[in-house]
Amino acid sequence: MTRRLCLRLFTVAAGLMLGLATVQAEPSLEKFTLAGWSKPITEVINLLAEPDKGFFRQESLALHYLPGAGGGDALRNLLSGQADIAFTDPGSFFAAIDKGAKLRAVYDIYPQNVFNVVTLASSGINSPADLKGKRIGVYSLASGTRQNLQILLQQFGLTEQDVSIVVTGLLNFAPLMQGQVDATAATDTGLALAKRRGMRDVNVFKVADYLNYSSDLLVVEDSFYQENKDTLRRFLAAYRASVEWMMGNAEEAAKLAMKRAIDGQNPEINKEIITLRNNASVSDYTQIHGLGALHVESLQAAADAYYKLGLIGQQLDIESVVAKDLLPKLK
């Protein structure tokens, strides 16, 4: 057989294989972009695991994760047309509606409040009421740590004017240990990491003990909600399936985070973070109505608190800005 004939036969065979591959290729997927509040971190491994698990692909969706720097950033990416849905916090959601944005919350990611205020046991601060006159660290002035600190202070008749706010950045437990602040506002995962790094003997004031409302929501523009309900139902079904996987397979998720998350180097820490997020994903309400079900009453209480604090300029009717018709109900 001549070299030219061999080459021709190879070319034909390759063409046949290519044609077969084309026939067998999965149908084209609908691109769907989620604007995140963070970089690709372990907390959102249920989304980052898509290349490995294919939850969204099974719903004919091609998921794209767009990183952000906070819930407000996620909403800006949504409102600028760069994303179809935003992973954002209630405070940013309330503020955007207050400024005129037409939005709908469609899924409650974490119905449990994950924020807290931490002090050293030796500080003499044994109750949130003792925070008066103290220096308190927050991630930033636009962060959920500051907003939830204000919520906590409000429960004890205090305001920001009664304390000194200190911007410490994400590594805010170092200033606490070094005595630069008397207390620091953080999240459950931040606290867990600080404890792993040796922080001991602390008092933890959980915001959830005083006003337990959602930490994060999935939000879309109202026009998108009205025009794309089928796509949203498929997306939310896939999202719920990804959460169920993470809840039932924490060790597998922790290992995948080593490959997919920028902070996933340690599988033990990964599993601890994943477990905390799994715990925050459920509530008494979701036990009855299913993962992601929106609890209007608690969100309304939070919106009312934001209004009383002056964080938003008008009272909001939460019932009118949530969508409860996209998730299947528990049987």
Helix/strand layout:
Blueprint: H1 3-24, E1 30-35, H2 45-48, H3 50-53, E2 61-66, H4 71-79, E3 85-88, H5 90-98, E4 103-110, E5 115-120, E6 135-138, H6 144-154, E7 164-167, H7 173-177, E8 183-187, H8 188-196, E9 202-206, E10 216-221, H9 222-227, H10 229-248, H11 250-260, H12 267-280, H13 284-289, H14 296-309
Helix pairs in contact: 8-12, 11-12
Explain how this protein is built.
44% of the residues lie in helices and 16% in strands. It has 331 residues and is an alpha/beta fold. The protein has 2 domains: 30-111 and 213-321, Periplasmic binding protein-like II (D-Maltodextrin-Binding Protein, domain 2); 115-209, 3-Layer(aba) Sandwich (D-Maltodextrin-Binding Protein, domain 2). The strands form 2 sheets. A 5-stranded mixed sheet has the order 2-1-3-10-4, with helices on both faces. Helix 6 (144-154) links the parallel strand 6 and strand 7. The model is unreliable at 1-25 (pLDDT under 50).
